[in-house]
Amino acid sequence: MAIIGAGFSGIAAGIKLKEAGIENFTIYEKSPNVGGVWWDNRYPGAEVDTPSVLYSYSFRPWRWSRTHVRQAELLEYLEAVVDEYGLGRHIRTRCEVESAVWNEDRQRYTVLLKDGRVERFEAVVSAVGLLSDPRYPDWPGLEDFAGPRFHTSRWDHTVDLSGKTVAVVGTGSTAAQVVPSIAPVAGQVKMFQREPGWVLPKGARDFTTSERAAMNSHAAQRIVRAMMLMRREKAQYRNASWRPGTPENAAAEKAARTYIDTVFAERPDLREAVTPGYPFGGKRPILTDDFYPSLTRENVTVVPRAVSRVTKRGLVDAGGQEHEVDILVMSTGFKSDFVSTVEVIGRDGRSLNEVWNGEPQALLGIMTTGFPNFFMMYGPNTNGGAIVTHLEAQADYVVAAIKLLARGRASSVEVRDSVSQWFNSVIQQRLAGASFEGASNYYKSATGRIVTQWSDGAIVYSVLTKLLRRAAWKTRYIMPSSGLASEPTSAVRAAEPGAVGAASERAELEQLYVGS
Length: 516
Hints:
With 516 residues, this protein is of the alpha/beta class. The chain folds into 2 domains: 2-133 and 336-513, FAD/NAD(P)-binding domain; 142-330, FAD/NAD(P)-binding domain (3-Layer(bba) Sandwich), CATH 3.50.50. It is 32% helix and 15% strand. The strands form 6 sheets. It has a 5-stranded parallel β-sheet, covered by helices on one side. A 5-stranded parallel β-sheet has the order 8-17-9-10-13, with helices on one face. The longest helix has 20 residues, at 387-406.
């Protein structure tokens, strides 16, 4: 079995497989280390928005130092979990998967790696996540900019910001962490804002000595975790916090407006610039304690206009004004196309993106009809809420399906189209009327369909992943199964001589692409 990605999703899947007694799997990670987005996103100020107790596996609590863990400590946690559960021998770092092609005759996926190797697996799990493929802007002149330029998820730590004029383009959660972190160092910070977001204080702080001591008890942590989840469920059920007209949404927007009035009491210009014109929740709310105060610094300028083009010396905003800058930081988000970094070809020779046609959908965000033995974690309509809880539920779901293959009860497992269509219809009904509809955000497809968000909280999702298993699956038994192979069939290793074997495998792969 192949797992693509060694972030929270891939690690959870690997642990659940080992706990089920399934050891024959490989986790491919394109980066030099485990961690996923928490390895890639090492920009200044990077930390979680979710309380640390929730942003960790329920089966492996941790003695966190803060209410909201920072990137370095979170990465330390994931590395420790990998070591503790013996996942290291299953993980191949610096190993990128380009494609996975289903072979109906063999009931296997042919997996092509970027280094040219070809391997086969009975099942593939995409654990690449939703926020893994940086979105670079297409501004005219970007290539002509003379100074350093980089995306926040590819931060260049060799660039010295001291005394420099730094442009930060974007005002989402990442920019809200970057700006306060670099403002004390940079000479000037110019933040370009196409549209403001709603901001609420996070309340992040270091734990006290007594609080840290209490975390030595895993039982106490589990109790706190359960209480936090229960408090969140009411706000998340049917997206109450993100639905205009509900008490939860009204209270949140009132709190956000009060926060604006408090911080910018003496800066009416900034108060106007940072106040959104759409209902609370239309974009991802920003939780931060120091973003608004940083905007009042003398060396920070808010440019309330989008970037229209780039020159050799700086940026030209939508109003035509040019701003000279030394360094360009693009906090422009990620592609919201699921599995955008891997091409997946299903039974009829059609790619996953071709089947979706711009509107990704799947049963529970995990399985799509026409793609046997292919599973996604953090897939369509699973974003929002306590995401690690979602990932654990998804991992359990995947393992339940893999057991059928491992025990020889099926050669393939696929979701029934009728169940998938019913599920996605219900999801869209329950999301209708949410604030997401009236704002520009990454939640929606080009047609306006909400393709990223979940509608009802972590507990409801976990229950559904248990209910929608065997009844939702269509299994096949085409050939005798000997269980999951202990080693993938590698073109380089299996053929003599290796180069000829590799060429033969790649030729076969090309045939699979055209459906033969």
